Amino acid sequence: MRAFVLALALLAAAPCATAGVQWTDTATLAESNAAWGRLARLPDGRWLAVTTRFHGKATPSTLTISLGDARGRQWQELSSVAEAGRNIDNGELIVLPGGRILLGMRSLVEGKSYRLNVHASDDGGRTWRFLSTIDRNEDPRGRKDRGVWEPVFTQLADGALSVLYADETLADGDPSYNQVVSQRLSRDGGASWGAKSVLVKQAGGGKLRPGMPVMSRMQDGRYLLVFEICGDDPQCPVSTKASDDGVAWPDGLGTPLADQRCGPQLTTTTRGTVFVTSCQNEVTFSDDNGAHWQRVAPPAWPGGFRHSWPAIYQLGEDEIGVVNGTPGGGVKIRIGTF
Known about the structure:
The structure is a single chain. The chain has one helix and 24 strands. It has a domain at 1-30 and 208-338: Neuraminidase. It is mainly beta.
């Protein structure tokens, strides 16, 4: 831990030349008692962020919405979302074409109720109202491994709104799938959701746990999906799949992606470069639509594998930001020029 903190201090002191990225600035979303930061750009160019906030064992967690400037450097808290008696986490933001903002989350009463809920804001994130439930399990029979987790939105080219998530609700079926990657589509801006499609599963069922899916549309028009596969390896190696439309995907467990493990996140820049990060705390990139990958050295956040749940975004024409949980319970953004 001491070496990790020292490395962060050295990074903060001076820019670092890298293979493809020069890390320059650090911005703070939360100082403590926080985790899981995710961003979305507003129509006026500014940013919204969601972070999970923890208030002690007796009080359920909440989600805090923060407003940032167009460069992602300065942030101020804007609003908070809670669900009475329920722990909420895995916040995910998307700004729809009409300007409405959706906030997805996992919401649970452990062992009793698991839901993926959506709240909506029509005033830039200042106020929120419940909109819909994507999926749920209200009869887990005391089990902690029958939930639905980590919803991620993507606006598809045909106008449909996609949500991907990790899904344990097929674990009691025949065959039994410990966990799968599921998708639902909405044609009414998230007010209702279509039937579930399973995008990644272990053939014939079993103990493998594909999950934490995220996809991005690449420059060639296809969609790239990244996801972890837990079960055999506790550090959960990452694989990829590609789809022409973001809905029909090839069978199987995909193609392994080097240098990434657990909780992958990705973004495609306006130049076409695809960047990926994960709890391995490396950054890799592809300039040929995922055919070949290179590793950025040094990474945005040194220290190796850690359950810090990073995410990556294009902040400006030539800038990316890696959002990450930090030692001590803060959430920060490491910004670099590519």
